[in-house]
Design brief:
365 residues; TIM Barrel; Lyase, Ornithine Decarboxylase, Chain A, domain 1; eight-stranded parallel sheet; binds pyridoxal-5'-phosphate
């Protein structure tokens, strides 16, 4: 008998890792981004597998995510992209690497090191080259170099990075190139003083579209999980997760019968529906209701009817021969998360990272 299960396919993860490695220069380091529970899968399992593959670095958004990796025995450097002041002591305790994005957080970090009596701590510095989200401004480079010199007893510069705003959108090519040019100027200035620094600016789509800007490290997330942001790359990659569920019950609605909360679906003809144990508390957002989302049963598409409930969805199986207990595929190798997300007006990143911790994970190796 089935239930709702999120399978994590490690052979696919290894395939995606090796595919990406082949697209990089041999000496470029690869930082695997495993934030948000490994894009909704299982960060510890993914990190352990990539560690065995020889990945150089890990990246997470927050300190707690880095601590979870350390507790799971991960020994590679872990870059925390968005550390917050209250967590700096634990960041140091767990030997995580902070991405310092402002003078405020840099000074707070130096204070934390002094309290901890820890010297020469490796840090990365984040620059804002146009995303306008986080980072020192390019014209702060000289000021930053002074700060690093003044505090060299406490911090040691290990990396410098920036993030692209539209690496997946070739219509924004000139904007991206302007960002890369700004980063190049910063990198040259810093390299003159700190020649052994890691420089990194590319995410997945950056690696695919701007390989000339790989410097000595890249940060990839979504492609490791099997999504390439373009159909040409998608066919080279293998999604690592399969979300399966089951038909709990079948119902037949006569013409005029309504379905679900607020009666949002009313049958205009005799309709057969299947109820599935998966709802918005599992990450199937309300946006997927009322025909915006669908699942696959015996290879056929079954649209979601009516509103998504907390723990259930109902799908149209009028034209699908199926029985209670039959397997249902939500996403998988032949059921693209990208297609499902796009159909509802969102992106694969949102769908997969939204899959809740309530869904049981099953590692397949
Ligand atoms: C999430 C994130 C990445 C990974 O991006 P992908 O598109 O998933 O490869 C890289 N860098 C930063 C700063 C990020 O926040």
């Amino acid at each position: 008998m089935c239930e709702t299960i999120l399978e994590i396919h490690l052979p696919n993860l290894r395939h995606n890792y090796h595919y990406l490695r082949k697209r990089l220069a041999p000496d470029t380091k690869l930082l695997a981004v495993v934030k948000a529970f490994g894009y909704g899968s299982d960060a510890e399992v993914v990190a352990q597998c990539l560690s065995d593959c020889g990945v150089d670095y890990f990246g997470v958004a927050y300190v707690q995510e880095g601590i979870a990796l350390r507790k799971a025995g991960i020994t590679q450097p872990i870059l925390v992209l968005h550390p917050q002041e209250p967590n700096l002591q634990s960041l140091i305790e767990y030997k995580l690497t902070p991405g310092l994005y402002s003078q405020r957080i840099l000074e707070a970090f130096i204070d934390a090191l002094k309290q901890h009596e820890t010297e020469m701590y490796p840090v990365h510095i984040k620059f804002n080259t146009g995303l306008n989200r986080l980072g020192f401004q390019p014209d702060e480079t000289e000021r930053l170099l002074d700060l690093l010199e003044e505090n060299k007893k406490w911090i040691s510069l290990n990396g410098v990075y920036s993030h692209l705003a539209a690496s997946d959108d070739l219509k924004e090519d000139s904007f991206t190139k302007a960002q890369l040019n700004k980063f190049d100027v910063i990198a040259d200035t810093i390299k003159a003083v700190y020649p052994n620094t890691l420089f990194h600016v590319l995410n997945t789509s950056g690696v695919l579209n701007y390989p000339q800007a790989q410097y000595n490290m890249v940060r990839t997330g979504i492609s490791l999980y099997g999504y390439g942001n373009t159909p040409e790359v998608d066919i080279q990659l293998k999604p690592i997760i399969t979300l399966k569920t089951v038909i709990s019950q079948l119902h037949t609605l006569e013409e005029g019968a309504s379905l679900g909360y607020n009666r949002n679906f009313v049958a205009t003809t005799k309709t057969r529906t299947a109820t599935l144990p998966l709802g918005h508390a599992d990450g199937i957002g309300r946006i997927y209701g009322n025909g915006n989302g669908f699942v696959w049963i015996h290879g056929k598409k079954a649209p979601i009817l009516g509103n998504v409930c907390m723990d259930m969805i109902m799908v149209d199986v009028t034209n699908i021969e199926c029985y209670e207990g039959d397997e249902v595929i939500v996403i998988g190798p032949n059921a693209s998360a990208e297609a499902l997300a796009n159909h509802a007006g969102t992106i694969s990143y949102e769908f997969i990272t939204g899959l809740s911790q309530r869904i049981q994970r099953k590692v397949i190796d």
